[in-house]
Amino acid sequence: MGSVQSVAVVGAGMVGLATAWHLQEHGVQVTVLDREGVAAGASWGNAGWLTPAFVAPLPEPALLRYGLRALVSPKSPVYAPLAADRNLARFMAGFLRHSTHARWQESMRSLLPLVREALPAFDHLRAEGVSGEVLRADPVVAAFPRVAQAGPLTDELEHIAEVGGTVAYELVSGQVARRLAPVLADSIQAAVLVRGQRFINPVTYVHSLADAVRARGGSVVEGAEVVGVRSGPDGVVVEVGGAEGSAEGGGRFDAVVVATGAWLGRLCAPLGVTRVVQAGRGYSFSVAADPVPEVPVYLPTARVAVTPLGDRVRVAGMMELRRPDARFDHRRVTAIVDSVRPLLQGVDLDSRRDEWVGSRPVTIDGLPLIGATEASGVFVAGGHGMWGVTLGPVTGRLLAEQVVTGRTPDALRPFDPLR
Prior knowledge:
Layout: E1 6-10, H1 14-25, E2 29-34, H2 42-45, E3 49-50, H3 61-66, H4 68-71, E4 78-79, H5 86-97, H6 101-127, E5 135-137, E6 140-144, H7 151-162, E7 169-173, H8 174-180, E8 190-194, E9 197-199, H9 202-215, E10 219-222, E11 226-232, E12 235-240, E13 243-244, E14 251-253, E15 255-258, H10 264-268, E16 277-288, E17 297-299, E18 304-309, E19 312-321, H11 330-340, E20 353-363, E21 369-372, E22 378-382, H12 388-405
Parallel strand pairs: 1-2, 1-15, 2-10, 4-19, 6-17, 15-22
Antiparallel strand pairs: 3-9, 5-9, 6-8, 7-8, 11-12, 12-13, 12-14, 16-19, 16-20, 17-18, 18-19, 21-22
């Protein structure tokens, strides 16, 4: 590529801003563009967990056992209204084809280099002045109404270990779990304690990352809708607002990184990135708790995460496979509330604030899209599914290296956007 001195990053979430920050480590001048604002997408209302122990490909054999009937139930924690969307039906067909144990193992091996460097990447940001607070989640408490229900989670953790991962965990009684997390109801009989994890307030952390980019001389332009990216002999042109240079942030750059989450296809499909990125929408809200737990709580039977954020807890769950711009569906919030009500105590589930829906970018094979497109100087970073917050900084470090040097790091080869 020659000397890369200026790069536009499209998307001001965790992945985009982490990439911009690491590009600055190489002396690159960066401009970050977002059609809404910093942390306005999936980075805003997610659980905020930095949990490499739980990172695994979303297509898994359990989905085949889950059954199509459950997937189309509005009360299901994984909801796919297939009848309303032919594209979604095709996506689900491919997703289910990848939900075999052999493919899961292959994908898990591909993810391990990122998983191992996920938390050290946050340590590096902290050491270099990013002020966002990272809290210890030691342990994450995964709680179950019945002891036997812990089996699928411990099995998955063992499967991760079989392919080279390392997870420290132990099975304990409900009584021990309640001492660690008093929000758990008496109905909880067992819990898996997963050690060595962390969590953040995703909004404040991502804003601190944006502040760090600005402090190094980078530009973060909010309200800039990128409508086109085209490569030419003199660099890459970014069109904002419909025409080159017609709005703030547009212009010509040495390279461009597209990190727009569930909207990746809009800009990248014409650039050879034909792998579909489906929105896996998650819902969350905050409620008062007495007392607020000191550690995150996972309720696997409901697929719900409970995160302490200040004087409240954030309750997050649901994997709703729909268009990213579909309307907020209050039935999803009701389904979350109904599923966790028997499992929690001291939590006012009927006085909710900050009800939110956001779109996680999900790929058919469960692996992210990180690397170069067919267009010279245009790169992609997205498709992390539920793990964009956890893997954002390590993704940014590796992709920045590729953008600047023109060489693909070995850890990124399985995530080629053109695969």
